[in-house]
Amino acid sequence: MIDCVSENSVLVTLGNRIDPALTSKIVALCEWLDLNGEGWLVDLVPSYTTLLVVYDPLQRDFRDVTRIVRQGVGGLAQLTRQPSSEGHSHEIPVYYSPESGPDLLALAKLKGLSVDEVIRLHSQRSYQVYALGFLPGFGFLGTVDPQIQAPRKVVPRASVPAGSVAIANGQTAIYPRTSPGGWQLIGRSPTVMFDRHSLSRLSIGDQVRFFPVSRKEYLSMGGEL
Fold this sequence. Notes:
6 helices
């Protein structure tokens, strides 16, 4: 489905649920449009199930863009790569503790688990980057093990420290900078997720794995408490 959402953009909807295979299609369509959008393509904004295509209306009109996008969508069966070969893989250190993750104890109690079990369940799987948003460099990662999924906080915090690792329902994320936030905080990473030179560390389709580090290791990596 292709919908006109403004005088210079269309929204391409490729599905209706979070799915790694769907992310593959969105990444492939982005690559195809990058190759075929010279002179008129302004920006591409991928998300869970959609792709926003921003174009120069002085170079192409809605009908032209729709025709080109449909051509790209029609070739997705040939363009789509396997999810395991997409993007980059990231190993992110995390200091999991009540000191760095003030919701860790409450989450463990809510789920009837020990803190060590929560840490193991969070760090034992690879997460895919499904979307970027909220803040520059904020990646929405999934999917969290059902045993440790938890809803957003009823009352968000006014300030969440940069590097905080958090859970909200089936998603997990790293706050790239200090900001308000309502996710459940379980740890903190020293990894810089965004800067003005290299921009976002993560891209749609990347894979992320977390690994636990001690307090001493976290501080030696430049982490702050």
